[in-house]
Write a structure and sequence with these properties.
Structural class: alpha/beta
Strand content: 5-15%
Strand order of the largest sheet: 1-2-3-4-5-6-7
Largest sheet: 7 strands, mixed
Oligomer: single chain
Shape: elongated
Length: about 400
């Protein structure tokens, strides 16, 4: 059985996940998983570290994120979005940005209409609302409470799934988690009933918060800190047991019907995206029509050089500019310099104070583009500290802008 864990929360979901992304990935490999998804809440912050570890461990990494949308009667619509392709990753990134910008730092707000307007390629896994518990009906007898709970859960879940099914046709699953709580069987029967009524497949996911069960105490500490309480005073908020860790495949076979486990493979087979596909992308509109980026950069540099040295460009500087431009051309960094130049020129045209700094001050090209103000003719600066073919990484031009208008 090729099993993929599709729901893991790392420490990048602040005060929730009790393991680092790399720990989850390496533990998944150790347990013989075929792959693992990193699905922090409304963020992709842990993805790069998970990607690095996944390449090291030779295990498939699925990229996604977990979201919650406010629902009526204090309920939530909870779901995971996974990226099957590069375009889906772009959609997910934009959605996270949209949701985060609506609220103050550390919070987000997503609306149903956002999914309809911005998501067309992501896969979705609906998650049952944790707040629909039997304890919501303390005044009813146990049997009456159970029946009320079932009816309420089914009605709300049905409405949520109906809406999501319209947004994600053939791309939606019902996520079932068995965490050895009193509601496990009830939740399973409800998920199966919803699946049959709406023709949506059910898949196993374990809402993983830690890579090993020994992190339970740490997870409890995080919850208490989040509530600004002691652990003793947070008892009702703490998870009931240590089941939300990466469990062995043998244990999962004991807990779940086989179709729910094999369905994870069906989802994973549709996810082909890797961070290795990403490249720096710069705007094309910074180039005049009919001219290459190399030619345009050279023109701007020598125009700037004539302004820097109106009488005559020093021979030493001409040699240095040619040297730098050749390295920039060989490494295909022209668009980067043109983009930074465009930003700086816009700022100066708007009378926004700005100043380049750091290792970029070692560059005669940056000086002639008016990005920096350190005259390389007066200093023995080392351009290789800024750009070098041996470093195999793009340059880093730091520009400070006045904070009031940044």
């Amino acid at each position: 059985m090729n099993f993929y864990e599709l729901h893991t929360i790392t420490n990048f979901t602040f005060l929730k996940g009790a393991s680092h992304p790399g720990e989850l990935v390496s533990q998944a490999k150790k347990l013989g998983y075929a792959g693992v998804a990193i699905t922090d809440e409304c963020t992709l912050a842990g993805i790069v570290r998970a990607h690095t570890e996944a390449k090291k461990q030779s295990i498939k990494l699925l990229i996604g994120s977990h979201f919650k949308i406010r629902w009526a009667n204090h309920c939530e619509l909870s779901f995971i979005l996974l990226c099957p392709c590069r375009e889906a990753y772009a959609e997910l990134s934009s959605l996270i940005t949209l949701a985060r910008r609506r609220e103050k730092k550390g919070h987000y707000r997503l609306e149903l209409k956002d999914l309809k307007l911005h998501i067309s390629r992501c896969l979705a896994i609906w998650l049952p609302d944790e707040k629909l518990q039997l304890s919501d009906y303390p005044d009813l007898s146990s049997q009456a409470a159970e029946q009320t709970h079932q009816n309420s859960f089914f009605q709300i879940s049905y409405k949520q799934l109906k809406i999501l099914n319209d947004i994600f046709p053939e791309r939606l699953w019902i996520g079932y988690q068995r965490l050895l709580t009193v509601h496990d069987y009830l939740l399973y029967t409800q998920c199966i009933a919803l699946s049959e009524k709406l023709n949506i497949p059910v898949v196993a996911q374990n809402k993983v918060l830690m890579h090993i069960k020994q992190r339970l105490k740490l997870q409890h500490c995080l919850t208490a800190i989040s509530n600004k309480q002691t652990i003793q005073d947070s008892q009702s908020e703490l998870i009931n047991n240590a089941e939300q860790h990466l469990r062995s495949r043998e244990r999962l076979k004991q807990l779940y019907p086989e179709p729910l486990l094999t369905e994870t493979e069906q989802i994973a087979e549709r996810c082909h995206f890797s961070l290795d596909e990403l490249r720096y992308e710069y705007p094309d509109e910074i180039l005049p029509e009919g001219i290459s980026s190399t030619e345009h950069l050279k023109q701007l540099v020598y125009q700037g050089a004539e302004k820097r040295w109106p009488e005559e460009i020093p021979e030493k500087m001409e040699s240095q500019l040619d040297y730098e431009l050749n390295i920039i051309k060989d490494l295909s960094y022209e668009h980067y310099f043109l983009t930074v130049h465009d930003i700086v020129q816009f700022a100066r045209n708007q009378q926004i104070l700005c100043q380049g700094r750091g290792s970029a001050a070692n560059s005669a090209v940056c000086y002639c583009l008016f990005i920096t103000e350190v005259n390389p003719a007066h200093n023995q600066l080392l351009f290789e500290r800024f750009i070098s073919p041996e470093r195999n990484e793009p340059p880093d031009i730091d520009v400070d802008f006045e904070h009031q208008r940044r």
